[in-house]
Design brief:
Elements: E1 12-13, E2 31-33, E3 40-42, H1 50-64, E4 72-78, E5 82-88, E6 96-101, H2 108-123, E7 131-135, E8 145-150, E9 155-156, H3 157-160, H4 166-185, E10 193-196, H5 200-203, E11 214-216, E12 220-222, E13 232-235, H6 240-243, H7 260-275, H8 289-296, H9 298-315, E14 326-329, E15 338-340, E16 347-350, E17 357-360, H10 382-386, H11 393-418, H12 427-442, H13 452-461, H14 479-484, E18 494-497, E19 500-503
Parallel strand pairs: 1-7
Antiparallel strand pairs: 2-3, 4-5, 5-6, 6-8, 7-8, 9-15, 10-13, 11-12, 14-17, 15-16, 18-19
Helix pairs in contact: 4-11, 7-9, 9-12
Amino acid sequence: MGSQFTNVSLPIRVSKTHQPKPPPEDLHRYWRSHQDDGYLERYWPDELDHNAWISSIRLILARQFPDFANADIRYFAKGTFNRLYSLTNPNWGRAYLFRVSIPVEPFFKTESEIATMEYVRQHTTMPIPRVVAYSSSDDNELGYEWILMEQMPGEPLRKLWGAMPEAARVGVFAELAVHVKQLVALRFSKFGNLYFADVADRVLPPDKVSSPAKENKGIEIVDRDIGPGGRFVIGRIVAQEFFFDKRVYYPGSRGPFQTTRELVDMRVQLLERRLRHLSPVEGEAWYCENDRELERNKDRIFDLFNQLKALVARLVPHENRPEDRGVLWHDDLSEHNLLLDPATFKLTAVVDWESVSIVPAYETQDARPAWLSDRDWRPTSLVHLARGVPPNDEFIAADKLRRVGEMGPARVVYHSIVGPLYDDSSPETQERIRNKRGIAKQLEIDTFQHRPWWTASWMAENGFLLNGTAVNGTGSVNQNDSIKKTNVIHEADTVEKGGAVTVATGQA
């Protein structure tokens, strides 16, 4: 690329900051019922004309950066929320990507992603793309927010994993662990997302002021470079539990949150509003097959939800404990977002930093990357059960065993380098963490909203209170006996009758 960026501070915000405005009323255009899974998925409603898009991209960039006027611009790929175009020129030293985003969380998702990447670049050695410019407004020829960034070298781990010897597999996660150790060592006083300080008035509640960096017994700094005098602030959270589908419209705090309990309580409130705001009629805005099944079983759904809600008060204390310290966590360190040199298998980049939030440390599962975990496996959804698809529990159990052998050596080396995030040596702490992780899992989009029977199973397996039956939290109560005492959804009790789902009480 030319020398125009030599003396320029990057990234460059092309859009002008403006006053807050509510999300547009037509966001439903970007969500539809997934044909196979039956829940809402993000999609592009327009007919894609690459030539028209490329012309608009060229116009946008040429106006601000003349060197890009002669770029070779081509469609590159698409992701969950994005379309990407490559920009190359034989006279440049590197290639670039132009990413266009669906407006699922207008302004906030783009702004927090850029600030997060800059923060990580400043405070760790994590290899991430350099952002050149961005627009957090859709006021442009494309009608969407966009980011211009360097294109990082390498191939996704998913393409290389099968050909990698075990030593190389262990080596890449040992390399990643060095960077992650730096990331999780950063300490934060609140839960939310990072933003540049110049948009603080948009991302902080009117009565909140970000605290300055402070020393902790002379050993570590909490909120480094954050608050008055810093380049960043901790502001409104950008996470799927807070903006997925209709949630973006619901009132309630988006943080930043001072305690784990505040964070969890707000997740519960948003889930409850979503369950009361179903779209079960095909053809209406926001319709999805999953909503239809939730509506058919709404009495038992809310019986189960109320039991889950009551558990929060029992399992998540109001005061923060050591496992609740704030960690900036990339929760999708997956086979798609880790790029490797195909010849040496060395890590070349960690990509996809959107919706990376500061969360309680225990929610990181000991800072384990998604690819080394079993958390990517999901039980059969409510929609599939309604279609007569049998539960996949046995498959998941078998695959977990397989992955123990495949991932085991890499897991051991990775965790030996990252080390513990907090002291969990006491049995009381271990039980508290186990319970908190269980609650967090149930509040994920892909759990209760799509798989409520799995929440019922989790509650039964752990012996939690079910329909007024007092049981302890050790899991000593027999699972089937617990299910018999309540009208909960369980995979063995869901059958398809005449196209509708009938949920019966548990049977031995």
